[in-house]
Design a protein that fits this description.
The chain is built from twelve helices and eleven strands. With 441 residues, the chain is an alpha+beta fold. The chain has three domains: 110 residues, Alpha-Beta Plaits (2-Layer Sandwich); 95 residues, Chitinase A, domain 3, CATH 3.10.50.40; 152 residues, Trigger factor, domain 2. A hairpin with an 8-residue loop joins strand 3 and strand 4. Helix 1 crosses helix 3, helix 4 crosses helix 6 and helix 10 crosses helix 11. The longest helix is centred in the middle third of the chain and has 36 residues. The radius of gyration is 34 Å and the shape is extended. Its EC number is 5.2.1.8. It is found in: Cytoplasm.
């Protein structure tokens, strides 16, 4: 097959796929082999009739349509890649005269990712909020590390807030024990809010070995209709009370939880890490502000099909997130009392902006002739390999040769965003102090 670019008018590209007579005849043979079992011809067992006999009965072109479809299906993806086209909708096809021993040409017209005229994208003015890490931020981070390394020890005393108790319980509504309300040697942290409101608070003051009845009322919106809004009594037996024992914040602690020999070194590393993260967040927020400014200057209408595709992607992403929580998109919509059409309309504005923003940025890529070198490509692939704990070769295989051009376009977008940020007029400002909370009177 030979692919030839013909023309581009607005966002429609025209090209041809030319097949030799030999290629077309081979496709006809393949179509015959695939469908010969469908024909019943007198004098031949099913599927055993020669091609010439079938063509005599049904006409010379009986296999032409399947042959053309196969040539198109096999040739079109390669042609798109060869011409480096990013198509956004289904193609229209025209066919040359078809016959045995004749070459065939398929002329394709297909809409491609549009490029719009962009302006004033360099030098936009934005503020960049810089956050300075404070000593209390470092202390809070160290305290979190201290808590994560705490030990639980038995406490021979009454239950306090924050303790973890080991208990048996059995729940009753009236005289009847209800299903799912019984457990043995269940761990429960007091104050976690894991149990029905009021349950954990009533265990405060209980001692190891004590039996205690806890009376609660199930919420009206409780998931079990049989229990919703009803009062229940849980007969509890406290086996153990455990309290959190925090390690001492000293040099030994630093050695145990890090690669540093002293607590001061650990604090300095923590401060540097927090500051690096804060700086990255500051830059990313400023880049977002630059993109928003450039978008507002250049926003444009986008093809509806691109918006619909983006809505599809957003819906699929939500569906994947919900499935991690044991739900499907259909169940979510039922719970929210929405139908699919209403849900899609709610996504439309955000999807339109996403598509329009990308269109503006990719148009700047074209205007500035932003390219991706092999070195940049390999660096991005290596970074991705580290992120996913894979070999670079595995990442390349995962992306696939057909999708590598889209991966390169993402790199182009990163480069153009960096370029817009570097050329923007960025005013750095300090993060405003948060006003202290005051009690309402």
């Amino acid at each position: 097959m030979k692919t030839t670019f013909v023309s581009k008018e607005k966002n429609d590209v025209k090209f041809t796929m030319d097949f030799t007579a030999e290629e077309f005849d081979a496709a006809v043979v393949k179509a015959y082999q695939a469908s010969k079992d469908q024909f019943v011809i007198d004098g031949f067992r099913k599927g055993k009739a020669p091609r010439s006999i079938i063509e005599k009965h049904y006409g010379e072109g009986i296999f032409f349509e399947d042959a053309i479809n196969n040539l198109f299906k096999d040739g079109y993806p390669g042609a798109i890649n060869e011409l480096d086209l990013e198509v956004i909708d289904s193609p229209a096809a025209e066919f040359s005269e078809i016959g045995k021993g004749k070459p065939m040409t398929i002329t394709i017209t297909v809409p491609v990712y549009p490029v719009v005229e962009v302006k004033d994208y360099f030098g936009v003015e934005v503020e960049q909020v810089e956050a300075k890490v404070k000593p209390e931020d470092v202390e809070k981070e160290i305290e979190g590390l201290q808590k994560r390394n705490a030990r639980m020890i038995l406490a021979d005393r009454p239950v306090k807030e924050g303790d973890t108790v080991l208990l048996d319980y059995s729940g009753f509504v009236g005289e009847e024990q209800f299903e799912g309300g019984t457990a043995e040697r269940q761990e429960l942290k007091i104050g976690s809010g894991m149990f029905i409101p009021g349950f954990e608070e009533q265990l405060v003051g209980a001692t190891p070995g004590e039996k205690k009845d806890v009376t609660v009322t199930f919420p009206e919106e409780y998931h079990s209709e049989d229990l919703a809004g009803k009062e229940a009594v849980f007969h509890c037996l406290i086996h153990e009370v455990k309290e959190e024992q925090l390690p001492e914040l000293d040099d030994e602690f630093a050695k145990d939880v890090s690669e540093y020999d002293t607590l001061d070194e650990l604090k300095k590393e923590t401060e540097a890490r927090l500051q690096k993260y804060a700086d990255e967040q500051s830059v990313n927020a400023a880049k977002d502000a630059v993109i928003e400014k450039v978008y507002q200057i250049n926003k444009t209408d986008v093809p509806r099909v691109m918006v619909e595709d983006e809505i599809d992607r957003m819906a699929q992403d939500l569906d994947h997130q919900l499935r991690y929580q044991g739900l499907s998109l259909e169940q979510y919509l039922q719970f929210m009392q929405k139908d699919a059409k209403e849900f899609r309309e709610e996504l439309r504005e955000d999807a339109t902006k996403k598509v329009s923003t990308r269109l503006v940025l990719m148009s700047i890529v074209e205007a500035e002739k932003v390219d991706v070198t092999e070195e940049e490509l390999e660096t991005e692939l290596a970074n991705m390999a580290v992120q996913y704990n894979m070999e670079t070769a595995q990442v390349k295989e995962m992306i696939g040769a057909d999708n590598m051009k889209f991966f390169k376009k993402d790199i182009q977008l990163k480069k153009v965003i960096d370029m817009l940020y570097d050329k923007a007029k960025v005013t750095k400002v300090e993060k405003a102090e948060e006003a202290p909370e005051t009690e309402e009177k």
